[in-house]
Amino acid sequence: MDIPLLVVVVDLFPSPANSVAAKGKLDSGTVERILNQLLVFINAHLALRFDGRVAVVAAIAGRGSHLLLDSADLSNASTDIKNTGGMYKQFKVVDDVLVQKLQQLLDFDRDSEENYNKQSCLAGALSLSLSFINRVKRQHTDPASTIQARILTLSVSPDSPSEYIPIMNCIFAAKKDNVIIDVCRLLGNDSVFLSQTASSTDGIFVKVSDVDNLITVLLHSFLPEPSIRKTLCLPGGTLTNYSASCFCHKQPCSIAYVCSVCLSIFCSRRDSCSTCGSSLTQQ
Amino acid sequence: MIDEDEAQTGSNTGQGGMYHWEAAYQRSWDALEEDDSGSLAAHVAALAREKLARRRHVLALSNSAVPVHRGLIRHQFLVLDMSEAIASPADYLLPTRLECVLHNAQVYVDHFLTVNPLGCIGLIATRDGGAEKYTELTGNTAEHIAAIQNKSNREPRGEPSLQNALEIARRSLLHVPSHGSREILVLYSALTTCDPGNISETIQSLKADNIRVSIIGLSAEMRICKHICKETKGIYNVIMNEQHLKEVLASHVAPPAVESEKTASLAMIEMGFPSSTSFASPTICANHGKPTQIGYECPRCKTTICSLPTDCPICSLTLVSSVLLARSYHHLFPVPPFVEIPVSHRTSHFSLSLAAQIQLIVVHVKWHSLLHQQGSGRYQCPNCMHLFCLECDIYCHELLHNCVGCLGGSNH
Amino acid sequence: MSTILEHIKTLDNNTLTRLYHQPATCLAILRLLQPLAKHIIMRLLFVGAVEMPVVLNWIFDTKQASLAEALLSLRNFNIAWDENGSLIINQVFQTNLKNALVGGGNTSSFGLPTDSKDKKDITLEYLDTYAKESWETVLHFLVGTPSEKRPTAVVTLMEGSGLMAKPAHSHRPEDLRITNKGFQFLLQDVNEQVWGFLLQYLEMSEQLGMDPVDVLNFFFQLGSLEFGQDYSVDVLTDTQKQMLEDLKHFGLVYQRRKKSSRFYPTRLATSLTSGVAASGDTGDAGYIIVETNFKVYAYTTSPLQIAVLSLFLTLKARFANMVIGILTRDSVREAYNNGISSDQIKQFLTNHAHPEMKKELPPTVVDQIKLWESERKRAVAAPAVLYQDFPRSLEYLEAVGFARELGYVLWSSDQKRMFAVTPEGHVRMKEYMIRKKQQQQQQQQAV
């Protein structure tokens, strides 16, 4: 019996870079609408199975990544359970905790303007998620069941070249751990790194521009757990660009020169490697 | 657990400076300690922790903080001693010496090719006083594993010949381009060698051709092996038990540091990054001569090949996938080893920034509380000052190769 | 678990729709359905209706059979059906499942926690002990341990469910004896047992004129409650208040006094729809170790557990904290005679296996248990008519060929020139024999 563990990485907090990437559509109202639909999606995941488990990791530019919620550890949740408004209690508690934590983070963020210039920390959030999954797996001792973990990334932030290597490291670790990374790209901009992430880990990559219909996409494409994906047709399968991009101009190239010491890629011959500093003879 | 005990008692020369065979027989159950309620749980947990701590120690040794130049393009011949010596009984290698060694060789080949995506490995076996090549140098794991699993290849016969094996490996390695490393790793069970000529000459030519020979002894130390390794700048190990064999093999997986005097042989290599294409009708793969529907096209000469990485058989361009290249990047930008902080310093040590503290509370304390209660140490990243538990420390260094704290960017 | 689904399937559409007025019920049923059906519901939840061709495209072509199966079960539960070329979701179900997910609507479906603090502190341990004791009392009654307390609700339910029966010529309730069904019941895990009782209760309640919708809703509501929380009695319907009274005897809920305005669900109740073992975290961990030499060590002092073990074990020794028994051919055959199957024994040993041997039972033991079962099935009795003493091989072959063609042959031996046919076949065979005889006579006359 597999216990489904879903880790949601939320990367949609306002920062100048994100706003540009989202073509100015990322205001606090939109974020709120997205998060509300995310809450419904999380509840739907928990509704499918009594033993379903959810964790949420927030990636905030310049402020690092934070584990906001782990549905298996809500002991210290301070929530008014008397008034669940007709909701199933577990759902209500999860929602309350998440909303409260997000509010804290966003409030904190507003106070420190200088953080706005920082780049995204998606790789950090993915690393944190993978460490978390690793930890959950280690602590799971019941031999009768296994943890079937996957990651869903809701992202708007643009690719930052400095994150290429950490993201690649995450891909390899995820593959080794059998973790699927799904990507839901919001507000219509593309991301080469994340599409590579999804296709390398057997996840799906979907772009959503109509935020108000996000919930249908989430329920339709991202709810099915890996075991049932053999049966359900899911979107994706667009060709992923695997060609290398050179370190010097970030241009994609199909034939390139590679430093034999550090494997840095350059689009033209050169005498020394700018990454590792070795002077290179030409062959 | 039994492994654990053996590993402890087996460390170097056993207790009190005595050799392993001089010491009294160690019963693994004597080492167990019961707590007040007669339960072994605490002791077992302690053993597990110790094991983790040792793994961490090994990792910390192999991962230095400063990125060193490493030869990432490796060419290695793995020499297996398939003489009758490998059929001799060994109570430290279970179920039998042969099974254990071949199984570990298989694991090693797989691990090696995963960690060194541009590396090639070849298999040579020595038996009947000669040496035969099981597989050519290639990056295809399946081929090697098939060769190891082949029944007729697993049959121990006659005497081993160190010189023959080294000569065959040397001759094949001569064709390897100079920018790649040339290595030989020998898994040697016998205590003799049956050579046709003077092995010193072979050693000299190995030295001249810049080939590094490492030997893992599976029984006792041999002077000739030690000498070969010393001359060719390799490493000589004699293993004590299976656990140790695994550790030694694992230490050979990471690419060795390149010495500065060798920089002359560094070079820019021209490589192709073919994109995957699916063909309307099956096309013959130029490498294996088998029809294939999904494959890659060499970007220079448009030859069809079925698997990466490989050299284009027509224009000899090295063909790799960019994702494969990325797999070795963590050698360039390693996660620095974390500093252990004793439990007693728990409160006095904090001089962290506010952001880091919040992060610490939110991220770690909650799901690490369990281990901390058990008295495990904590580990701190020297760059971002974040604290990690043992489990996450190992995960960061062994598999993930990212430091969660550093990527958060709060202290940079 | 599956049995409750089977039961719900038999309800008519109106009842089902009335059932779906409670979000708790919708959620519980969703969790019980097969995975594909769950996802179809989720996809319909915010859309309402989807055209059939689109639905067909959701599934890979090779897996269309499982889609058909999922759609059929949704149809049976009156949750979604094909109408005018579209797949339509039951609106009541849709509204109430949505309510469960996002809030709104009926506020007491998941139970109404009481506002005030209980005067006396009811701890989780207390509830666990209470539930365990009550449930074991019921089981003790079943195995016939003498006890003074016998609530009528329990007695009637036992008899009604056929777990116990009175000997043919007795009418006193003390004479109730455990039946074969009762033996099988003992080997099930607690969750299955509770559901078994509840289903029985459901059937009886219908005879008593209780509304099955009310009863079912209360079951599912209990399953959604939180262990350790006290809930208000006031919002329950009269039927449900009556049920509360009855379920108390089984240890599913706890009420301090009969007129108390609050009740506590126990773990037996809260784990109803969760599928996890209903036992508490502590105490009831596995206690059985099975060795490859068929010896069974059970670390238990409970007379109930020992009684259950003795159903299929020959008990050899009893110590302060454990009993030792051996699985023998005789003891296991005895169990088979009581109607217990090898799967049930295997299931029981696995469910209660000691943590140290949680991974699997010794294969030798499992195989042998299976073999002992199959050897009972070596001979099958059936009424038959035997044909023998055929004078010539040809005649025998013709006759057996004829019978075989019609599928009447139960057994045949070419060597002995004998075969047996079913009684139905005997009629046809007689006709055949007469015909044959006539043919022979005609031939002889012709000669």
UniProtKB/TrEMBL annotation, chain A:
One of its GO terms (cellular component) is transcription factor TFIIH holo complex. Keywords: DNA damage, DNA repair, Metal-binding, Nucleus, Transcription, Transcription regulation, Zinc, Zinc-finger. It is found in: Nucleus. Pfam families: Tfb4 (PF03850). GO terms for molecular function: zinc ion binding. Its main location: nucleus. It comes from the Eukaryota. One of its GO terms (biological process) is nucleotide-excision repair. Belongs to the TFB4 family. Component of the general transcription and DNA repair factor IIH (TFIIH) core complex, which is involved in general and transcription-coupled nucleotide excision repair (NER) of damaged DNA and, when complexed to TFIIK, in RNA transcription by RNA polymerase II. In NER, TFIIH acts by opening DNA around the lesion to allow the excision of the damaged oligonucleotide and its replacement by a new DNA fragment. In transcription, TFIIH has an essential role in transcription initiation. Component of the 7-subunit TFIIH core complex composed of XPB/SSL2, XPD/RAD3, SSL1, TFB1, TFB2, TFB4 and TFB5, which is active in NER. The core complex associates with the 3-subunit CTD-kinase module TFIIK composed of CCL1, KIN28 and TFB3 to form the 10-subunit holoenzyme (holo-TFIIH) active in transcription. This is General transcription and DNA repair factor IIH subunit TFB4.
UniProtKB/TrEMBL annotation, chain B:
It is found in: Nucleus. The keyword DNA damage applies. GO terms for cellular component: nucleotide-excision repair factor 3 complex; transcription factor TFIIH core complex; transcription factor TFIIH holo complex. Keywords: DNA damage, DNA repair, Metal-binding, Nucleus, Transcription, Transcription regulation, Zinc, Zinc-finger. Residues 75-253 form the VWFA domain. It holds the Pfam family Ssl1. InterPro entries: C1-like_sf, Ssl1-like, TFIIH_C1-like_dom, TFIIH_SSL1/p44, VWF_A, vWFA_dom_sf, Znf_C2H2_type, Znf_RING/FYVE/PHD. SUPFAM superfamilies: Cysteine-rich domain, vWA-like. One of its GO terms (molecular function) is zinc ion binding. Its main location: nucleus. The keyword Nucleus applies. One of its GO terms (biological process) is transcription initiation at RNA polymerase II promoter. A zinc finger (C4-type) spans 298-315. NCBIfam families: ssl1 (TIGR00622). Belongs to the GTF2H2 family. Component of the general transcription and DNA repair factor IIH (TFIIH) core complex, which is involved in general and transcription-coupled nucleotide excision repair (NER) of damaged DNA and, when complexed to TFIIK, in RNA transcription by RNA polymerase II. This is General transcription and DNA repair factor IIH.
UniProtKB/TrEMBL annotation, chain C:
It comes from the Eukaryota. One of its GO terms (molecular function) is RNA polymerase II general transcription initiation factor activity. It is found in: Nucleus. GO terms for cellular component: nucleotide-excision repair factor 3 complex; transcription factor TFIIH core complex; transcription factor TFIIH holo complex. Keywords: DNA damage, DNA repair, Nucleus, Transcription, Transcription regulation. GO terms for biological process: nucleotide-excision repair; transcription initiation at RNA polymerase II promoter. Its main location: nucleus. Pfam families: Tfb2, Tfb2_C. Residues 367-433 form the Transcription factor Tfb2 C-terminal domain. InterPro entries: Tfb2_C, TFIIH_p52/Tfb2. Belongs to the TFB2 family. Component of the general transcription and DNA repair factor IIH (TFIIH) core complex, which is involved in general and transcription-coupled nucleotide excision repair (NER) of damaged DNA and, when complexed to TFIIK, in RNA transcription by RNA polymerase II. In NER, TFIIH acts by opening DNA around the lesion to allow the excision of the damaged oligonucleotide and its replacement by a new DNA fragment. In transcription, TFIIH has an essential role in transcription initiation. This is RNA polymerase II transcription factor B subunit 2. It comes from Rhizoclosmatium globosum.
